[in-house]
Design goal:
single chain, 3 helices
Length: about 160
């Protein structure tokens, strides 16, 4: 006859070891879009660019009475429709963000309502020029000193 109580610690140890020996299963799904140049299944050589647009009035940094009197949602949408979408019609993302910016002559940073535009695109001179044209158009339209650009290489899959 087997003494169950004597075997219990050995059985528990075996169960613990078996539980640690699970196998990780990695599943790679095929791309849902194929042979679509605007949305390739998978590609290298793309860029991920983030552009930060301040929405406050350009002189709000120096005049607190101007704070909150900058670009409206309607004006932002018009800019997006006329300057951004025609350059990147295949897709983009826009987020509402809140940031800080200290201009070169200011003693302290200004707090700004902002928009974050995210665009992913093939890394070509034409596309890089489009990004710079968007930045220039915003500065011209609003009088802002800068549009922060952050660009990194991206592996893209749709």
């Amino acid at each position: 006859m087997c003494n169950f109580h004597a075997l219990l610690p050995s059985l528990l140890l075996l169960l613990a070891i078996a539980g640690c020996a699970h196998k990780t299963v990695s599943v790679t799904l095929p791309p849902t879009l194929a042979r679509d140049p605007a949305h390739p299944g998978k590609t290298l050589g793309w860029m991920d660019t983030k552009l930060y647009f301040g929405l406050e009035a350009a002189d709000a940094e120096n005049d607190q009475q101007q704070a909150g009197k900058g670009v409206s949602e309607e004006q932002w949408r018009e800019f997006l429709d006329h300057e951004v979408t025609p350059r990147f019609p295949s897709g983009l993302s826009v987020l509402d963000v809140y940031g800080q910016w200290r201009s070169k002559n200011a003693a302290s940073p200004s707090r700004l309502r902002s928009k974050l535009l995210i665009i992913d695109y093939p890394n070509t001179k034409e596309n890089r020029d489009k990004v710079e044209a968007i930045r220039a158009a915003w500065k011209l339209k609003t009088g802002q000193q800068s549009v922060l650009r952050v660009t990194e290489p991206a592996d893209v899959s749709f």
